[in-house]
Specification:
Elements: E1 7-10, H1 16-25, E2 30-33, H2 37-45, E3 49-50, H3 54-58, E4 63-66, H4 71-78, H5 84-87, E5 93-96, H6 102-113, E6 118-121, E7 124-125, H7 127-133, E8 136-141, H8 144-155, E9 158-165, H9 169-197, H10 202-210, H11 217-228, H12 237-254, H13 259-276, H14 284-291
Parallel strand pairs: 1-2, 1-4, 2-3, 4-5, 5-6, 8-9
Antiparallel strand pairs: 7-8
GO biological process, one term: glyoxylate metabolic process
Protein name: Dehydrogenase
GO molecular function, one term: 2-hydroxy-3-oxopropionate reductase activity
């Protein structure tokens, strides 16, 4: 019998499926729940167990991990008679790895404490590739003792794992991450259009740019998307639109000016309004092409 904690995993999407599978590979017993049967079948094929409800998934779990799209979904699975807080055992550790508002995380931790459930907010960065390769950056908010308990589990999912402060701090750092990523993708997209319209060999140009100060993880990860116009979602525009709303609202609350971020947030919103919300966020290239008169 394994001495590793029993895991309940709620939310098996683009990120949640490979992350839960990495825990199975690391020897954890993982019971999953999501709304899509094919995702449950994928988990069982990888060696996990499918549950028929949240209550069933969390009943015997030592650790409950959630990975869902946004604050409303976190609240829907956490609260109410069929939710996590009413059905997880006292003493369990709830790790929310979704990207949500910092205040939602603070409120969840407060509500969970009344049930004897400990909480960490632990959003991630690295996209689908980082999830598959178990090289995610994990930014965590909560108590040191809970972080220390969860760290071996995080080690199976990511490479850079940092406790950033009290509840909500992980979400605040993730919001800053999404700001940087969006601005970086936008700059790369503008450079791509500029280079192509100038008649430069785009592949060669991106290689040399990525080897200098202009290089970045974003350019490394998204270079082929730009070159091949392949916008299969690794991280959807819809979700980045949500995240840009989080960071702009949070910045307004603390009195931080985000002049460039605000512009990019509008460009993301515009792309979504044009029907591209289901594409990868590298599809910001399409918005720059439209503005530049290129055929998309």
């Amino acid at each position: 019998m394994s001495n590793l904690p029993k895991i309940a995993w709620i939310g098996l999407g683009i990120m949640g499926s490979p992350m839960s599978e990495n825990l199975v590979k690391a020897g954890y017993a993982v019971t999953g729940y999501t709304l899509e049967q094919d995702k449950l079948d994928r988990l069982t094929a990888a060696g996990g167990t499918a549950a028929g409800s949240i209550a069933e998934a969390v009943a015997d779990a030592d650790v409950v991990i959630t990975m869902v799209p946004a604050s409303p979904q976190v609240e829907a699975i956490a609260y109410g008679p069929d939710g996590i807080l009413e059905n997880a055992r006292s003493g369990a550790l709830l790790i929310d790895m979704s990207s949500i508002t910092p205040q939602t995380s603070v409120d969840l931790a407060r509500a969970a404490k009344d049930k004897g459930i400990r909480v960490l907010d632990a959003p991630v960065s690295g996209g689908e590739a980082g999830a598959i390769e178990a090289v995610l950056s994990i930014m965590v908010g909560g108590e040191q003792a809970d972080f220390d308990e969860a760290e071996p589990l995080f080690d199976a999912l990511g490479r850079t794992i940092v406790l950033c402060g009290p509840h909500g701090s992980g979400q605040t750092v993730k919001a800053a991450n999404q700001l940087i990523v969006a601005v970086n993708i936008q700059a790369c997209a503008e450079a791509v259009v500029f280079l192509e319209k100038s008649g430069v060999d785009l592949a060669a140009a991106l290689d040399v740019l990525n080897g200098g100060l202009a290089g970045s993880t974003v350019l490394t990860r998204k270079k082929d998307n730009f070159l091949n116009r392949d916008f299969k979602p690794g991280f959807r525009i819809d979700l980045h639109h949500k995240d840009m709303g989080i960071v702009t609202d949070a910045a307004r609350t603390v009195g931080a000016a985000l002049p460039v971020g605000a512009v990019v947030a509008q460009l993301v919103a515009s792309l979504r309004a044009q029907g591209d919300g289901g594409l990868d966020h590298s599809a910001l290239l399409r918005a720059v092409e439209r503005l530049s008169g290129a055929r998309v």
